Amino acid sequence: MTDTVARGIVSKVSAGLREDGQIANAPEPLGVIAALSAHHVLERAPSPPDTVRFEHQQYQEFYAASHLAWRIRELAGKGTEQEILEFTKKYINEPAWAEPLRMVAEDIGAAVSKTPEDATAIKAGALLVTKAFDCDPIFGGELSFLSGGGVWKEVGANTDKRLRTRYSTGGQQSEIVLTSMLATGSDEFRDILLPLLSSTDQQVRLGTYRLWGDFHLSSLGPDWEKTVRGWPEEVRAEFVSEMIHFGNGARSLVPFALADESAKVKVAAISALAWVSLEGMNQRLSELDEDTFEAAARELPPEWLRGPNRPHALAIFRKLYGEASDPLRRIGLLMHAAELGEADIGGRLRDDLGKCEPAQAKQLADFRLKPILDIIRRTDPEWVSHWVAELIVDGTLWHDHWIGYVTSIPQEMRETLLKRLETEDLQHSRFGGGMSVLAAAPDSATVNRIFGKLCELQQIIASQPEQRHELEWAVA
Questions:
Q1: Is the pLDDT at 228 greater than 90, yes or no?
Q2: What per-residue confidence (pLDDT) applies to 149?
Q3: Considering the entire predicted model, what is its pTM?
Q4: How far apart are alpha carbons 417 and 402 in whole angstroms?
């Protein structure tokens, strides 16, 4: 706002304070604005000139909430039906006022939780929540949770009836109502929510969890731990993962999950906790038994492991590598160990890669072959060149992507490729990889031989002009 408007507001408030006997003399308006700016409530806006604004929107929301809280209590006490309707239209039904109204609901929730309960706050909360449900059932559900159990006692019965009636109509309406039920955090809707959350269809479960990001365990009832423990292992693991990762249940669900008898559930909790706090995840990881630690370490990215968990995990991957026989698995374990600090792995990678079947090599090429070759090439570039050349020639690797690794080829391979080049019509054959390999690793003997062959072909063609010489032209 402009300085002119701001000074007018300060003067109006000062006059009210004087009238109430709170101050003797009205302060200079510019002095008040300067003081609020010095204490970082307001700030001078860079443009347009001579304007001020709140330094952070949350200050604005807070002061707006203070006004709304006063007005809601007033309406709950002696407001007419028309005044309540006007307030609902102007504030509750306008998304711009959502954050201040959330602050009001939280303030009401705090007042209601005191002993004895604040009866005025309960009436104000009931009014706010009821009118919010009229405008938007999801927003109403959110405000009802923030307003606390005392307010829900007032509005719960009527709200329960309204939501169930709308849910029974089906279609998109039921999804909106289901989200509202989740937002309330009330266990009144357990009979609807529990079958969905424990459904055998994963899409039904995930679709329910993700309707409302701030899932409340209170929706499952006071004995939620017993309820969840009765679900199948896969459903329990998914539940704790979703709630810790995407919800706000880390504090309650992590201890619950780590006390589960299933290693899968524990690992799911550890993996999800990493997205919330790496420090917390590492602390919990270090407390696990050996088998569960191993299962978790195999799931977690190595860069997430901190402190003593890194050498512990490295020891596990060394052990697993020693026990494995499949070369593809050994390569994967060795690369994982390398990320944890294992050194001098080039030779072992080379030996295991050399034992891979073409199909296994192609599987590596689809995901992680390049870093493996780069490590081996540091100590044995010739082996890498020969290995890649062989797979390009047999068609396992696409030459355009991998030819950069070829710098030399075995003499036997060179002879085989040259013989085909000199004697076959390759224009319609799949020999592109072989020609790429020859071109990527030339030597003077190859150049002399190819030039000599071209001269020989030219002599044949020139000496017998009456012949078509289709093969000779194709070879040339």
A1: yes
A2: 92
A3: 0.74
A4: 18
